[in-house]
Please model this.
Amino acid sequence: MKAKHFAIYGLTALVIIFVAAVFFNNNVRKAAATNTSEASPTSGQNAINMADWCLEHAVPESECTKCHPELIEKFKAKGDWCDEHGLPDSQCRICNPDLKFPQELNLATAKDTLEVTSDEIKVELFFRKNKSVCATDGALIQFASAETVHRAGLTTQEVFAAQLEKTIEAPAETKFDETHLTVVTISVPAMVTKWLVTPGEMVEKNYVLAILNSPEIAELRASLLSAQAEYEVQKKELERHQELKTRKLISDGEYDRQVAVSRKSLSNLNSARGLLLAAGLQESDLEEIVANGTVHNELQLRAPGKGIVVERKAQLGELLAKGSIYAMLADPNSLWIEAHLSEEQIRQVSVGQKLTFTSDGKGLNRIGGKIIWVSRYLDPHTRTGIVRAAVMGLSYNFQAGEFGHVLISANDDSPVTLVPKDAVQWEGCCNVVFVKESESHYRPKKVKLVDGKGPFYQILNGLKPGEEVVVNGAFLLKTELKKTSIGAGCCDVEPAG
Model:
């Protein structure tokens, strides 16, 4: 009997608890409705539809051209379109930084209903439909207020466009200008018995460089004496024939034969003189031979022009064949710069471009040059081509044979977008920057970049000039982004830097 009473009491208690729960739940719903009615800033037809809001793009859902591309033509038809940023003018936050929608104002009023981090920052991750992209593409970082942004210490900088500058660096060396090089040679076999100059010495034209001994020079001297004697004889004979012809004692034929013989003797004399001049003798030397009748094997090697003695090629006592080079002279103020460029680099240069040569010496001397020749073939072993430049300006501080490197700058007509390096963050799979959409909204964007000059990266895609990116505080935003990132990266771009 007692067990039966306990069962009835238990069932009655369960019924009472259930009724109380239903009653409490109804009261809670009524209170919530009352609170919502009181909190709503408007009512009736002017009430804000909070459901009509695209959190991904921060615009009303019913007007979002990103989610509904079919709306684009309607906005364009109304003249409400920003071609530069691909958005309606009424939604472009870049052109209208103070743009606010009623839903945003309502969200700001109801700040205490937001789920924020300890730093009052809310991170929401979204994914584009039907696209295999990483979570960063759809992320939106929202601060609770502009005051929170100020406390976080965020600063922004506008992305700008600049002229693309390419700099090519390659090993190089200085050489004497070959158009101002002079080789010293003679036309007879000879050997050096004594050098009178040393390499690096500056000489004037006709300066005696060395004393030579030649087995053929004595024969050429004797031939000159013989030709000179024969010419003088035939010259006198022609004068006698002229007198006889005037007196009509000889025929015209005899006179003509003597003229031919005289001309032949003169030709032999000029030939003998020319061979001696080619051997390095001067006119004064020939006059001395004729006057004194001296015949010997010694001759002087003279400088054919003014210059610096670059090299003595002939060794003492070595008999060289005719036409051999004994020495080389050069103009010390006429230098070339020869650079060795790779196959890819040589395609980017042309005649007329300027370069700077820097010596590897301790002084790090620099000098400018202008490209005058670009090789049309590559060395089969090094796979490099030669680029030659004429030195511009004074080159007395440089010596031929100095090693160093050249910098060649080339401007491209196509502009590039530059962004501060501190603005780029590696978030695990992508290089990203944080673009300011409003005072409280910052959207991460993936960027493809290459290294640039100074504190900037060159952006290949992902940003447009005029957009504002976070510089100071970009690391903080990356940290907040990583807290809620679901992680798997899809981008194979290497981290910046």
User: Anything to note?
Assistant: Confidence is low (pLDDT under 50) at residues 1-46, 110-132, 485-497. Residues 297 and 494 are 78 Å apart (CA to CA). The longest strand covers residues 403-420.
